[in-house]
Specification:
It is a single chain. The chain has one domain: Peptide methionine sulphoxide reductase MsrA (Peptide Methionine Sulfoxide Reductase, Chain A, 2-Layer Sandwich). Helix 3 crosses helix 5 and helix 5 packs across helix 6. It is built from nine helices and eight strands. With 226 residues, the chain is α+β, with helices and mostly antiparallel strands. The termini are far apart. 42% of the residues are buried. The longest helix is centred in the C-terminal third of the chain and has 17 residues. It has a six-stranded mixed sheet with strand order 7-6-1-3-2-8, covered by helices on one side. The protein has a two-stranded antiparallel ribbon with strand order 4-5.
């Protein structure tokens, strides 16, 4: 079922959504043993992550301390096929992704990954998340430099070794070769449509899990005020 159909039309027709409850890790995850040090002065850096529907992932990171802005978009494919209609075919190589702008003096890259693996998505699902299936919904970390790759690889190895998930982590760690902003109607979709069944079932519980599991990283309100 197309996600926009399920969000907008299915409820009006009385069709039950094939969704599942939001994902969160069964136990609190450890802090990354390999991480980048906090910056001594405020600045701006970016991280690009893919974990299924970008509506919910964007919504989670809008409530993370030190995050100033989150943009939904596409990564992993070429510019000329970076549109929702084309990406939704699963044939373009893109993954629905978010670009996170954050202050490294307030939150580290590793802590962003802790949020990503704890509550933003299920890293053990291959080419799907909840009701959404296809390679465009895969779990991926698009690293911008060697330091980001080192932290991502180290944290995945740490979580695998600790056996905190019942199944193997399938998250890809791949170089960022371009990020393309999604269409305007996808930006802040969760904030603008909090009562839609898809959002209520799949995404709002992730924000509640963030507040419950990682209270020191949670902030009220949208990014830009964090």
């Amino acid at each position: 079922m197309n996600r926009l159909f399920s969000a907008l039309i299915a409820p009006a027709l009385g069709i039950a959504l094939a969704g599942c409850s939001s994902y969160s890790s069964a136990t609190p995850l450890p802090d990354p043993a390999v991480d980048l040090p906090r910056a001594s002065v405020s600045g701006l850096q970016t991280a690009v992550l893919a974990g299924g529907c970008f509506w919910g992932v964007e919504g989670v990171f809008e409530h993370v301390k030190g995050v100033t802005r989150v943009v939904s978009g596409y990564a992993g494919g070429k510019a000329d096929t970076a549109s929702y209609d084309q990406v939704s075919t699963g044939q373009t190589g893109h993954a629905e992704s978010v670009r996170i702008f954050y202050d490294p003096a307030r939150i580290s890259y590793g802590q962003l990954l802790k949020v990503f693996f704890s509550v933003a998505h299920d890293p053990t699902e291959l080419n799907r998340q909840g009701p959404d299936t296809g390679s465009q919904y895969r779990s991926a970390i698009f690293y911008a430099n060697a330091d980001q790759k080192r932290v991502a690889d180290g944290y995945i190895a740490q979580l695998q070794s600790a056996r905190v998930f019942p199944s193997r982590i399938v998250t890809q760690v791949v170089p960022l070769n371009g990020f393309y902003d999604a269409e305007a109607y996808h930006q802040h979709y969760l904030d603008l449509h909090p009562d839609q069944p898809y959002i209520v079932i799949n995404d709002l519980p992730k924000i509640a899990d963030l507040r419950r599991q990682l209270p020191s990283l949670y902030v009220d309100g949208q990014s830009g005020m964090n």
